Amino acid sequence: MDTDTDLGGQAEVFPATRGSLVRAAASLEATVRRQAHQTLIAVYWKPVYKYLRVQWRASNEDAKDLTQGFFARLLEKGFLDTFDPAKSRFRTFVRVCVDGFIAKERRAAAALKRGGETMVVSLDFAGADSELRHQSFAASIEPEQLFRQEWVRALFALAVEDLRQQCAASDKGTHFLLFERYDLATAEPLTYAQLAQEFGLSPTQVTNYLAVARSQFRQRVLDRLRAATGSEEEFQAEVRSLFGGSVP
Prior knowledge:
Layout: H1 21-25, H2 30-54, H3 60-74, H4 90-108, H5 125-133, H6 143-169, H7 173-182, H8 192-199, H9 203-227, H10 232-243
């Protein structure tokens, strides 16, 4: 690939060892543990919050407290040791833990405790609420389907932001702008010829730039997915579900 279309930048953003998230979250090294907590929360907090709002009918404020309380509990030392990749996907494990946590909290009416070390990322609850106002859910939607839907949405949103930052860092902002205007457009996208005229490129360049951006976006999704699953088998199963194939 020539230098005009190669995005460049750092290839590995997340831990290279597949299935390492659970082990990293239990690491004795604070830096490794904190990074694993950040990775887990980044992918799962919004699906958990929306799941609480929709499935459990929690109010805005209750869902905020419950989300933070849940992750404080989930990331306690040893808790993730109960995850068994032979029994379920990590995503399902998290959802079942949410159900158990909320049922227990509501029965006990206990005060929620927030973990000082565990909540290491800012949670944009206002943004999540804004998304909810523009979403609709079938009354008959199954809990697993609801949670997976929001999990995929969060995964792809994080990958888009990863791609934006990568393009900016490698002076390839035009690649991302084209990707945003064509592949992320909510309205009817412009044609390649129209994009070429707007950006001062040839149609061939537009084609090449989009191909590179799409390839890198897929890799960013895979990076996020690799860091959010509990085993190699689960990772490959999720890849097949999302892309219809596998990765080496």
